[in-house]
Amino acid sequence: MLLAEVAATSDAVSATRSRLAKRAAIADLLRRAATGEPTETDQATTIEIVVAYIAGALRQRRTGLGWASLRDLPPPATEPTLTVRDVDAAFAEMAALEGPGSAQARSAAATGLFGAATEREQAFLRGLVAGELRQGALDSVVVDAVAEAAGVPADAVRRAVMMRGATGPVASAALLADDPLAALAEFTLEVGRPVRPMLAQSAPDIGAAFEKLGSPDAPTELCVDVKLDGIRIQAHRLGDDIRVVTRSLDDITERVPEIVEVVRALPSDRLVLDGEALAIGQDGVPRPFQETAARSATREATPEAELASQLQLSPFFFDVLHAGGRDLVDAPLRERLAVLDEVAAPHTVRRLVTSDPDAAAEFFAGALREGQEGVVVKSLDTPYAAGRRGAGWVKVKPRQTLDLVVLAVERGSGRRQGWLSNIHLGARDPDGGFVMLGKTFKGMTDEMLEWQTERFRELQVEDNGWVVTVRPEQVVEIAFDGLQRSTRYPGGLALRFARVLRYRDDKSAAEADTIETVRTLAGF
DNA sequence: TTCCGACAGTGGGGTCGCAAT
DNA sequence: ATTGCGACCCCACTATCGGAA
């Protein structure tokens, strides 16, 4: 199959806002991809590549190519000749390059590939490399399209994808099998093969979380887990063979020997566990997320690094998908927790099971006093809905706010093209001026974007084509999750997950919060 | 007919590893 | 040694479509 056909489908997908029409266009592409290659193997490969590309991704996890390396492209070809397998082979080659001179070799390979692409194909490839296709369809829509093309229920495909941890192999199986449903049914949980993790929704407070999960009439018993501020881990154990992966199913086994040891010492030798890993201080208090992130991102535990850091990650498990030969994905949480306590104690997350929102609120407050991030409220009746932001789990975190001053605005892109979008935030310095603490584009409605575009044009003092600097007069109320150390900003600290609550026209910049207030909040 | 669940989009800060400078 | 880029860890929020109620 030609790359041009995939690009043409991408155009059709972009051109409509209807998800059903997007799905139909992709299903049609997949049907065509499922025929026309010489061998069954080529056929399967082609489907896998097309599934990746039309979902806006390359098959290679890392190519070393990024936005910056595509600034200067060779002149485009006039006729489309590239097949999707040519393109995949080219990226595979680039991904395999390493060592001195690799950047040049990669650049040469990219020039070769892009030089063989037409103008339209170049744009499509650039979108794939940068992960910015913006056609209104990602993996979920493609999964639905696979179902349509194979003539099977979407749930059957979705479930197979969650078990396989990837869409490509599931799509080729469904599209090439004589009996697609039977082929999909063969994708079952396999110990050692990562599964897409179940995600949580969020709620502003415990009461809202209970409302989402409980029955409106009678009190409902719910599980309240402490939410830890670390990295998500999924641990697989098959005898002495242990594997640890992250939320995106990246294998980090080599980086976390201490977690491997914990799992190895558990009483069951066939396990799939879901949990969180983080660094805990000598005092038992969780270390800041930045330290956990640094520890888990360090690839080789060199002896010096080991000595220097002394920082160990501790795993805390909150779910179990398989134990001792028994699959638990479809079992209700209540049952899974009973098994979890048998196989993972004491390395489990602390929890409370209650139907009383007040008791849950007290538990939440206690978790915060311990230095934890918050809680996750869970229905005890739901199965493990992998890979979807299912309604079964709801997280609750505290929210802090500050009144800050807008120092500059950046032009928006994509659907925010034409609007001033991303605002720079400053705290007042009592000695004069403002100290920048970060930026945010979150929490803005279209109406606010419209308003702020006009407002900041009024306050404009400079426009360099990307950033519009403004007179520091507009106060904005910002919500955020916490403060972290920063080397980027002059105050040495930055806001974590800042978002706009509202613009405050009742306050002048002279009444905005000061950098001292922020420092006191941060405690450093 | 209205409501709401699921999805895509729009980017945020920090960290490491790696190649080039 | 420093710098710039790529990849990936954490993520919040709004707009929209289309099926459920």
UniProtKB/TrEMBL annotation:
PROSITE patterns: DNA_LIGASE_A1 (PS00697), DNA_LIGASE_A3 (PS50160)
EC number of the protein: 6.5.1.1
Catalytic activity of the protein: ATP + (deoxyribonucleotide)n-3'-hydroxyl + 5'-phospho-(deoxyribonucleotide)m = (deoxyribonucleotide)n+m + AMP + diphosphate
Record: residues binding ATP: 225, 232, 247, 276, 318, 389, 395
Annotated ATP-dependent DNA ligase family profile domain residues: 316-429
Matching Pfam families: DNA_ligase_A_C, DNA_ligase_A_M, DNA_ligase_A_N
Organism superkingdom: Bacteria
Example of a GO biological process term: DNA repair
Cofactors (names): Mg(2+)
Molecular function as annotated in GO: ATP binding; DNA binding; DNA ligase (ATP) activity; metal ion binding
UniProt record similarity statement: Belongs to the ATP-dependent DNA ligase family.
Function, in words: DNA ligase that seals nicks in double-stranded DNA during DNA replication, DNA recombination and DNA repair.
Cross-referenced NCBIfam families: dnl1, PRK03180.1
PANTHER family in alphabetical order: DNA LIGASE 1/3 FAMILY MEMBER, DNA LIGASE-RELATED
Name under which the protein is recorded: Probable DNA ligase
